[in-house]
Design goal:
Elements lengths: L7 E4 L3 H12 L5 E4 L15 E2 L6 H20 L12 E5 L2 H16 L5 E3 L1 H7 L10 E5 L3 E2 L2 H14 L3 E3 L4 E7 L2 E7 L2 E4 L2 E4 L5 H7 L7 E10 L10 E4 L5 E5 L5 E4 L14 H14 L8 E11 L6 E4 L6 E5 L5 H18 L28
Parallel strand pairs: 1-2, 1-12, 2-8, 4-14, 12-19
Antiparallel strand pairs: 3-7, 4-6, 5-6, 9-10, 10-11, 13-16, 13-17, 14-15, 15-16, 18-19
The protein binds flavin-adenine dinucleotide.
């Protein structure tokens, strides 16, 4: 039986909804419920490329990600789930012309000023890190050894198990049809399994956030775009430890999983659309571009290809904050290609915002009203 009254109702059982529930429960909020229309992780989270990086080109994302990496590094231990580990295998951005190098020098200087130990290295040094790279046209690379990756399946499983132990109620296959509002304040949620009262509602529905907002007359531009990923047959284990990025090769990002297979994607997107069927065009382009970066990949087959949503805003930065028109209504959605990595900081910020009305993290950068005011942020560095 679903509870008919909760203190905080969270819409969306992706990494953002789950992690925020955890931060709220940790701060002593007792009566929390998550509503997920399918199963946990079924949105973008289980389709993500596992990457976690601090190499952004703006202060807010660098600050959020530096903090997120600290949290990713200790989460498994904190929740007694040692399988949940961030592997600090680094991010390597391959650079092919002077203009790119100049831009990355600026990014690295900014990252260094925030304590991120990134650096510009030579093509030969890049090949020492990834022996199978073709560096014939690479002139330099931006490298940060404290970036890395984590497994979204383990993260969701670890958080969900912990939340259940903490008394958070997770309602899967329960769709929120609308958010009920009375006298300018949220009253609760109407779900496919019944109505629930709650004075606080968090919309963490990412690609679908706009549907619920529009029913309330709130217009925040978050659109679903189809992006895809692939996994290959294994190559020699340990060949590609970091996430390797090349904007010259279709905005490619790729890394090797523990079984030796390579996963990643390129920046070929479709939309806005709700169709996430994998395309032949993507498979062809990803094969072509990946093989130019790592020639050994010419000899292996793609064994899996999937589509998923980047929930995109016009500046590729999320919309996070309190919705002014409706008391008790909060939004954390529109994470493009970097919501998995940001989740620990977004969750902490959102929990503080809900409980204390403010956060020490730079959440104002993600102000959902910036679009209305025409104050777009610098585009976040995005791959895929
Ligand atoms: C191919 C690909 C590669 C990516 N690679 C990376 C990467 O390397 N690193 C990274 O950080 N990010 C990456 N991302 C992005 C990342 O996956 C997302 O930003 C992140 O998972 C967003 O998490 P979320 O919890 O906000 O959204 P989601 O995981 O989409 O969760 C939202 C949930 O809300 C549910 N929902 C929607 N509407 C309702 C409703 N009305 N009622 C109840 N439930 C509802 C959905 O079913 C969904 O499960 C990638 C994404 C894709 C598609």
């Amino acid at each position: 039986m679903m509870k008919s009254k909760v203190d905080v109702a969270i819409i969306g059982g992706g990494i953002i909804g789950l992690y925020t529930a955890y931060e709220l429960a940790k701060r002593g909020v007792e009566n929390i419920a998550i509503y997920e229309k399918k199963y946990l992780g079924s949105g973008s989270t289980f389709r993500c490329g596992t990457g976690i990086r601090q190499q952004f080109g703006d202060e807010a994302n660098i600050t959020m990600m530096k903090h997120a990496v600290e949290k990713w590094s200790t989460l498994g231990e904190e929740i007694g789930f040692p399988e949940l580990k961030m592997s600090k295998t680094g991010y390597l951005f391959l650079l092919y012309d002077e203009k790119e190098v100049e831009q990355y020098r600026k990014n690295v200087a900014l990252q260094n000023s925030h304590g991120v130990p990134s650096e510009i290295i030579s093509a030969e040094e890049a090949r020492e890190i990834v022996p199978s790279l073709d560096i014939s046209e690479v002139i330099a690379a931006a490298w940060n050894p404290t970036d890395g990756k984590a497994d979204p399946f383990v993260a969701v499983h670890g958080l969900a198990t912990t939340l259940k132990n903490m008394g958070v109620v997770i309602n899967e296959y329960t769709e929120v049809k609308e958010i009920s509002v009375k006298d300018g304040a949220v009253e609760g949620v109407k779900t496919s399994k019944g109505d629930v009262k709650s004075d606080i509602v968090l919309n963490a529905a990412n690609a679908w956030a706009k549907i619920l907002n529009e029913k309330l007359g709130i217009s925040i531009p978050i659109e679903p775009y189809k992006h895809q990923g692939i996994a290959t047959e294994p190559i020699k284990k340990g060949e590609i430890k970091p996430m390797v990025v090349s904007f010259k090769h279709g905005g490619a990002y790729l890394t090797q999983e523990s079984n030796g297979g390579v996963i990643g994607g390129i920046a070929l997107k479709y939309g806005p659309t709700w169709d996430i069927t994998p395309t032949y065009e993507f498979m062809r382009e990803v094969s072509r571009n990946f093989s130019m970066i790592i020639p050994a990949l010419k000899h292996v087959a793609i064994i899996r290809q999937w589509g998923g949503y980047y929930a995109e805003t016009p500046d590729h930065n999320a919309a996070i904050g309190k919705i002014d028109e409706i008391d008790g209504y909060y939004l954390a959605a529109g994470f493009s290609g970097h919501g998995f990595m940001l989740a620990p900081s977004v969750a902490e910020g959102m929990a503080d915002l809900i409980i204390k009305g403010a956060s020490n993290l730079p959440l104002s950068f993600y102000d959902p009203y910036r679009f209305q005011r025409g104050e777009l942020r610098e585009q976040a560095i995005q791959m895929g």
